[in-house]
Amino acid sequence: MKKQSWIIVASVIVALAIVVIVIMSQFTDPNDDVAESPADEGKQEQSEEKKENETEAQKDKNPGHLSVQHMDYPGDVAPYFSAEELTAPPSKNWITNGGNIYNGRYSPLDKINTTNVSDLKADWVTSLGSGYEFKYSGQATPIVYDGVMFTITGANDVSAIDAKTGEIIWEFSPELADGLDTLCCGWVSRGVAIGEGKVYVALLDARLLALDQKTGEVVWETVVDEWEKGYTITSAPLYYDGKVYTGIAGGEYGIRGYVAAYDAEMGRQIWRTYTIPGPGEEGHDTWPQDNKSWLKGGGPVWQTPAIDPELGNIYFAVGNTSPDLDGSNREGDNLFTDSVLALDADTGEYKWHFQEVHHDIWDMDPANPVVLFDVKMDGETKKGIAQAGKTGWVYILDRTNGEPLIGIDEKEVPQLEKQKTSPTQPFPKGDNFVPQGVTKEDIEKDFPEEFDGKYGDIFTPFWDEPLTLRPSPQGGANWPPSAYNPETEYFYVLGNNNYFSFAHYADDEENTFEEGKEWLGSVWQPVENTPQRGTVTAIDIKTNKIAWQKEWDTIAYSGILSTKGNLIFVGHNDGRIIAYNATNGDKVWEFKTDAGANAPPITYEIDGKQYISIFSAGASLAGTKHGDKIYTFSLDGEYGSVEDIPDEEIIQSPLAQKRKEHEKHEDQDSNETQKEGDAVLDQGRTIYEDNCLSCHGDQGAGGHNGPSIKNSDMVTDREALIEQIKKGGGGMPGFEGTLSEDQIDTLAEYILQRLATKE
């Protein structure tokens, strides 16, 4: 071929290549190195130059992590766990958040059982020295591997503990982002993950870290997203097959939720799948096509997923729509919010979904972790998945395809055009584990005499006239994990039974979207002077009917452990850890700790001895007493009550004093700044965010537990407001002794000046 011909051919090839590059650039974000939806299968390698730049940027942004090792690491490090190890029921170890990657929270250990559980006593107690302030919640499930426990506080401080003695091996304190304020529901972490010699930690400011399992030193750090836009992480990450999975919280901030998988060795993102599908993806047609409400449609993931290695699927429940309570601008079912979602665990590709609430306007999103189980039904072994909803039903599905294992009927529900309500909703066959409506008898029994508002049944819509309903946004079932026992074939779930009032006021700030600001769309609040109740329920997995139920005079806010010893263990708001007979619900043991027992218990075995452990540290949304201790029990334990434990026997965090000094120094700096700048209201906002925001909301009109401050009579009476802050009441804890007199005065001034509605 002549030279000129070669030149022409080469020119054509180059031109075609340029065209291909230009076309591909329309579909690929130049800043991404991964496929970001099930439709994208290509995975690009991140350049070393970009990686170095990202690493330097991360160092500059958060240089202040602290890792301190107090003793030599006594055990083996976690391996690259096999699928068999991760699906085995937990006995000697408790290696994932849910016990195994089925999330069943069932252990075959039975040395502690119904015949001897009454002999259970405290064996060791360790004070973690972190998370005392009211904004923090202690909700973590500890991990145990080869005699070492790993746990995390609401302040994101991580500890490695000798699981036999309670001695602290190392501690890690992260440097969280300054000004972090996009947390709708308090400062909380529900646990860590382990694998390949690392401890994986998801931080509240949307970063994912790997710590050296022996030392607590940072191995790698990845920015998952921007907390300033409302993206945070509260769930425990999950390790499986060389990957670390995490979901994103922030549905109250107009985010677009997702689950992402990261390489466990290096921290690089492998895939990301959005829970709100974009144009051309499955489910996008359930959002309006004439606006972009899907881009800020919510869909957070509040819990740790489950995985079936045989099917190759990862399963999780997707949370609320955004805005939570206003459906007027997002007509349609709004997939995949309020859904159980199955993806390919290796690629993130969509497999199937089941939506529990269509077009949610009540914040009835499923926050409870999904549980995988195998059970014989009609002579055939079924692969099941169960999810306990805020609606008060358990949704029992076939995990191979998402079809109901027990019938679920679509039924017509009340309609309201302004809210663009769905004409039908799913109604599972079987029993609801909490009441699903408000009756005249309820009003007479539970409400103050002056109540004269509207009320209704589940799925009744609302607009500008307050409407009282139940279940409330607290559930039904909320985040506290459920458990499944293959011996009893019962599914154990905690439920909440309280009354909430909803209303929509078109001119309220809550209806205006602003990136990084809480965006509920309407107003909600608990009905004052009505009871708060909880339930512990055993549900037959084959029929979805209640086998037994216990009622509490407070919300149930911890989580459940089930064992082959025919026991279930659960924490109570008053500080008790309680054991029930798993078959009939009889209470067989209890021990009262020094703070709200608002985390799930676990069990493990060392040298043939079975232990039960629980993190007892309180929770802001439960309004419980705060603390910082891990309590561990055994049949050989010495202490029958907290009063029996000598102070010198409680193991103390070596870093506790340093943390207190750091906080005191920050408070002094803050006070000096306030005096110099005379910015009392700014100081008041800080106090409000630390102590009040999770219950009363960013603008004082719609948190997750407290009434609207804007509509309260107290905002016209300073003395009454200060008395309420000090003494509490109506489900609110008192802050006298927690806050100083000056802080209470400053907080009251901030509420009166910035949050009170002026007539």
Automatic annotation (TrEMBL):
The chain crosses the membrane at residues 7-27. InterPro entries: Cyt_c-like_dom (IPR009056), Cyt_c-like_dom_sf (IPR036909), Cyt_C_IC (IPR008168), PQQ_b-propeller_rpt (IPR018391), PQQ_rpt_dom (IPR002372), Quinoprotein_ADH-like_sf (IPR011047). GO terms for molecular function: electron transfer activity; heme binding; iron ion binding; oxidoreductase activity. It comes from the Bacteria. SUPFAM superfamilies: Cytochrome c, Quinoprotein alcohol dehydrogenase-like. Its cofactor is pyrroloquinoline quinone. Residues 40-63, 658-677 have a biased composition (Basic and acidic residues). Keywords: Electron transport, Heme, Iron, Membrane, Metal-binding, Oxidoreductase, Signal, Transmembrane, Transmembrane helix, Transport. Residues 679-755 form the Cytochrome c domain. The keyword Signal applies. Residues 30-69, 657-677 are annotated as: Disordered. Residues 30-39 have a biased composition (Acidic residues). Belongs to the bacterial PQQ dehydrogenase family. This is PQQ-binding-like beta-propeller repeat protein. It comes from Salinibacillus xinjiangensis.
